[in-house]
Amino acid sequence: MAARRDGAPRRRRLRRRRFRCAHPRSIGERPVSDTDLIVRIAARGDGVTADGRHVPLSAPGDRLLSGGGLAKGPHHVDPPCRHFPECGGCQLQQLSDEAFADYVRDRVAGALTGQGLTAQEITPPHISPPRTRRRASLRALKLGKRNVQFGFSSQGSHRMIDLQQCEILEPRLFALVAPLRALFARMLPDRQPGEADLTLVEEGVDVVLTGLAAKSLAETEMLLDFAQQNRLARLMLIEDDAPLTLWEPDPATVRFGDIPVAFPPRAFLQATRDGEAALVEEVRHALGDAKMVADLFAGLGTFALSLANDVPGRKVYAAEAARDLVLALQSGGNRLPGRIFPEHRDLFRRPLTPKELDRFDAVILDPPRAGARDQVEQLAASQTPLIVYVSCNPASFARDAATLVQGGYAIERVKPVGQFRWSTHVELVATFRRVT
Length: 436
Ligand SMILES: C[S@@+](CC[C@H](N)C(=O)[O-])C[C@H]1O[C@@H](n2cnc3c(N)ncnc32)[C@H](O)[C@@H]1O
Hints:
By secondary structure, the protein is an alpha/beta fold. The chain has three domains: 8-76, no CATH class; 99-129 and 269-434, Vaccinia Virus protein VP39 (Rossmann fold); 135-253, CATH 2.40.50.1070. Helices cover 27% and strands 25% of the residues. It has eleven helices and 21 strands. The strands form five sheets. The chain has an eight-stranded mixed β-sheet with strand order 6-20-21-19-18-15-16-17. A hairpin with a 5-residue loop joins strand 7 and strand 8. Helix 2 (97-114) runs parallel beside helix 11 (394-406) and helix 10 (373-380) packs parallel to helix 11 (394-406). The longest helix has 18 residues, at 97-114. Bound molecules: S-adenosylmethionine. S-adenosylmethionine binds next to helix 7. Keywords: Methyltransferase, S-adenosyl-L-methionine, Transferase. GO terms for molecular function: rRNA (uridine-C5-)-methyltransferase activity. It holds the Pfam family tRNA_U5-meth_tr. InterPro entries: MeTrfase_TrmA_AS, SAM-dependent_MTases_sf, U5_MeTrfase_fam.
């Protein structure tokens, strides 16, 4: 049809195109009004309509229909994994890449708004690609002689999905799923649960098994064959809470910058390599040429060791409560003489005081999910010019951020990080500068 100058045919074409976007719906269902439009995704992953109703497994742009169904909008995609949503490993595979990135950003911005705070800048989020997760805990359940279910445990339930496909695990971790299922089938007592903690380290996959015992020579040999055939970096059993190393041809290590660090079993490691790189890069950007730096909740030294060499003469004090992590960090730090100063310290019980904090040009902190209320109160009372807060929980971060802002800091920049792809688990790096 020839285009008309009054624009009517164009409007009709647009209307038709929009209609085709919606998926087929049952007879008698029709969109009711704009209040039925899904406008955002809530923290726990439900879509929320303009009038505040929660709709599981929906995407922004979807519409609730009068019969209770859902007309899918342009951001509602087919989940890439056959186990979604029952598996529990992912919550948001129905979102387009754009909608997932918006969700990650909005979680951070929303948490700040909830505390009445604004950041001068919120950067575009970093989102980890599929199949990059380098650590996972999988559960096994033996139901019959050769019948073992092995996978993530379904969210909020004891149901298990027997994992045949996974779009988040790094391929070297996923390659172990079938061999581990077979191992559990042979060795797990009937009706008993087992667990496998997998971490990709420099030497291959580090596997820690719970629920299995090596009571006889035959069982020990079976486990050693498994480790050798699958070229594991290390195989450990947890028996009565005590770890037993069965196989570790070379010491298991991780690397921060060019510093190798011994990897204690089940130690904390950022979930993806690219996510870790994004966090380190953002902290590096914030630190600038700061010389005296404190890294609080330092873990194995992800930040301390990656950043110590950036600036001539930089010294990094690193505090961490887990003894095995501090020891590993210390031996890694020995490769940078005079640069790294680790301390075994419980920062909940004994946070750094303002007097201690005032020695530093910059303080990095990366606390557990609960946040770091007591340490942040001390920071708010200090004169530290720069604070770089790495968080795995936007809600506790925003509470701590409010304390820092009350203490005279401004939120200069926030980078949201979605390294748990398709999950509701969101991380961030925030830069605070003292302004008063
Ligand atoms: C989110 S991890 C961050 C680790 C490290 N920054 C990294 O990126 O690998 C939090 C760390 O805080 C440590 N931690 C937990 N409670 C602590 C406390 N009360 N005092 C000091 N460190 C603590 C944990 O052992 C863990 O290593």
